[in-house]
Amino acid sequence: MLAVPDMGLQGLYIGSSPERSPVPSPPGSPRTQESCGIAPLTPSQSPKPEARAPQHAPFSVVVAIDFGTTSSGYAFSFASDPEAIHMMRKWEGGDPGVAHQKTPTCLLLTPEGAFHSFGYTARDYYHDLDPEEARDWLYFEKFKMKIHSATDLTLKTQLEAVNGKKMPALEVFAHALRFFKEHALQELREQCPSLPEKDTVRWVLTVPAIWKQPAKQFMREAAYLAGLVSREDAEQLLIALEPEAASVYCRKLRLHQLLDLSSRAPGSGRLGERRSIDSSFRQGDRYVVADCGGGTVDLTVHQLEQPHGTLKELYKASGGPYGAVGVDLAFEQLLGRIFGEDFITTFKRQRPAAWVDLTIAFEARKRTAGPHRAGALNISLPFSFIDFYRKQRGHNVETALRRSSVNFVKWSSQGMLRMSCEAMNELFQPTVSGIIQHIEALLARPEVQGVKLLFLVGGFAESAVLQHAVQAALGARGLRVVVPHDVGLTILKGAVLFGQAPGVVRVRRSPLTYGVGVLNRFVAGRHPPEKLLVRDGRRWCTDVFERFVAAEQSVALGEEVRRSYCPARPGQRRVLINLYCCAAEDARFITDPGVRKCGALSLELEPSDGASPGRREIRAAMQFGDTEIKVTAVDVSTNRSVRAAIDFLSH
Questions:
Q1: pLDDT > 70 fraction of the chain, expressed in percent and rounded
Q2: Percent of the chain at pLDDT above 90?
Q3: In this structure, are strands 618-623 and 630-635 parallel, antiparallel, or unpaired?
């Protein structure tokens, strides 16, 4: 096979079918921006995909950062005792009644844009600022979801602070990661003064499994900017998928460390056993992990493989934006119905610190909500809210509540919003229903039949409302719904274990179909007439989608897809090839509906030494079975490595 990848025809693609050719597309083709001469090559055989054991550099300690939508934290373990996981120090500050082994994902920058503080410190300092002064400071919270929701994420994407000012998202994330890096290294130095700092730490960053490749690359770029690792030592940083990390941890738990929602008796019967989950499983047993976090619900299905306890993914990661922030949004909408959406928008902009106060007050009450709670809940309104409303509207908040059509929220004599339990539970319903619908849709898939357990993990899984709803909906199926006791730290601890043994997830499912655009020899009746290109008397079909890996395809860790490329011109220093992706498995052309350009494969070439006057072949090996798509390349004539990368962020 000879064919031309798109993107300016800067390199030649060598495969295994004589129907592919290096003839360029005509001007105006959607896959070529410029053209250059292409030297014809003799077809060379492309090796079949093969598995290769990944190599990992030595390290002394793994530090995992669970960068969450609402709260974040780090943990670590030493290579000498990998399962002894050390949680980060307790954070200063915090809310009464809330365990704070994590800190809120809140970042405060000075009016000049310099780092000031993160977490509880940032939140409390911002809270104490004079209202007029606070309007100049840049306060960011719950900003992780912006990366998930951005349809055209790039390195220049902007984030909006609470006061409406914007700054590059990459800098915001880098500030946060740098904060955790410095905290973690300081704690490591205190615990182990003899630990050399360079090349001894493997860093792990957690991301939702449903995040696409650009978002994963964005987190890696932020880590480079924060100084966690350098680009030259990229393998020192691992991206861990949150439900996978939870799965890795859950399979090691003892049964007495779990709460079985079907029995509600954590200390009795089989739950009192001290065997681990994986020892009680048999070869081939299957389970679902539902990671219910602040921003997303993330579902993964694993099959346990004995004797080594490795995991095989049975269905591609699924989920959606059904995290705990959905409940916060429902509360904000409720306030809008009572006081007016325009007022709430103005208040957030004019009194940003007081708005943060109000969200903290709601968060505290949200955590006490439960399906069987009888009494009403009081939510404090900041004085700034009450005063601002009277100045804006000319009457007080009590009058607004009386005039409102919302009859399940009243004004209490203590000067608080008084909300019935039914009203609070109603705020949960859209988000909880979305989670249950996603789980039910997953369980209906033929690939997922035979599941025994559902692990409910993540910060939102602490909610009694969510636990009760999931058990009520899924318990009738005979599914055991199980919650680890330290449910909010499950992902963090699992990420540490994953960093110590990244090969534990042996097989993954590709979420999308990936490939390149090429030319095929035109076959009348099989190829559309509009794709016909005649060049030098030969008939070619343009825009053919050459598939590397299909959506839903099982891909083993270390398995390689190999393709060879050749520079189009002597002395060419760079080969750049567009990558395309789609959700369908059977796309034929890169112009088909749903097929889109998603990235570019670049090969940076060293100057040729002139010893090989013939063609120069560059062999690229791509891996789709890891948490990130990876590529390596070698110059076949010299057997030297070629700098290769896949960029998903440049449009």
A1: 84
A2: 50
A3: antiparallel
User: Pick from 55, 79, 203, 145: which is nearest to 626 by CA?
Assistant: 55
Assess if residue 516 is contained within a domain: yes
- Looking at the domain assignment, is residue 573 inside a domain? yes
Element (H, E) at 165: none
Q: How many residues does the chain have?
A: 651
Provide long-range contacts, Cβ within 8 A and 24+ apart, for 84-93: 85/493, 85/496, 85/497, 86/191, 87/489, 87/492, 88/183, 88/184, 88/187, 89/183, 89/187, 91/119, 91/120, 92/120, 92/121, 93/119, 93/120, 93/121, 93/123, 93/124
In a domain, 619, yes or no: yes
Instruction: Classify residue 475 by its DSSP letter.
Output: G
- Cα(642)–Cα(621) distance, rounded to whole angstroms? 11
DSSP category for residue 157? -
CA 446 to chain centre: 26
What is the rounded end-to-end Cα distance, in angstroms, of the chain?
29
Mean pLDDT of the chain: 83
pLDDT at 185 over 80: yes
Dihedral sign computed on CA atoms, order 514, 519, 523, 527: positive
**DSSP class of residue 192?**
-
Does 214 score more than 50 pLDDT? yes
Q: What is the CATH number of the domain that holds 639?
A: 2.60.34.10
How many other β-carbons are positioned within 10 Å of the β-carbon of residue 209? Answer: 25
Domain C-terminal end among 209, 241, 273: 241
DSSP letters, 12-48, are: EEE-S-TTB--PPPPTT-TT-S-----------PPPP
Cα–Cα separations (whole angstroms), residue 472 to 19, 67, 75, 465, 476: 57, 31, 34, 11, 7
* Dist. CA 625–CA 57, nearest whole Å: 19
CA dihedral 466, 468, 471, 472 (to 10 degrees): -120
Q: How far is the C-alpha of 624 from the C-alpha of 554, rounded, in Å?
A: 9
Of 139-153, 169-183, 252-266, the least confident: 252-266
DSSP letter string over 594-634? T-EEEEEEEEEPPPP-SS--S---EEEEEE-SSSS-EEEEE
State how far Cα 458 lies from the chain centre: 14
Q: How many alpha carbons fall within 13 Å on the CB side of residue 115?
A: 14
Q: What is the CATH number of the domain that holds 210?
A: 3.30.420.40
Nearest to 123 by CA among 357, 367, 412, 376: 357
**Counted domains in the chain:** 2
Angle at 429 (CA atoms; ends 423, 434), nearest 5 degrees: 170
Tokens linked to 546: 């050459």
Q: What is the pLDDT of residue 519?
A: 86
Instruction: Confirm whether 432 is domain-assigned.
Output: no
- Residue 536 — left, alpha, or beta (φ > 0 → left; ψ -120 to 50 → alpha)? left
Task: Tell me which DSSP letter residue 253 carries.
Answer: -
Range of the domain at 621: 512-645
Residues 542-557, mean pLDDT to the nearest whole number:
94
Pairing status of strand 310-320 against strand 505-509 = parallel
Burial of 410 (0-12, 13-18, 19+ CB in 10 A): middle
Please tell me the number of Cα atoms within 13 Å of 288 on its side-chain side: 31
Residue that finishes a domain, picked among 241, 258, 279 = 241
- Residue that the structure tokens 């034929």 belong to: 588
CA distance 385 to 417: 12
Give me the pLDDT at residue 44, please: 31
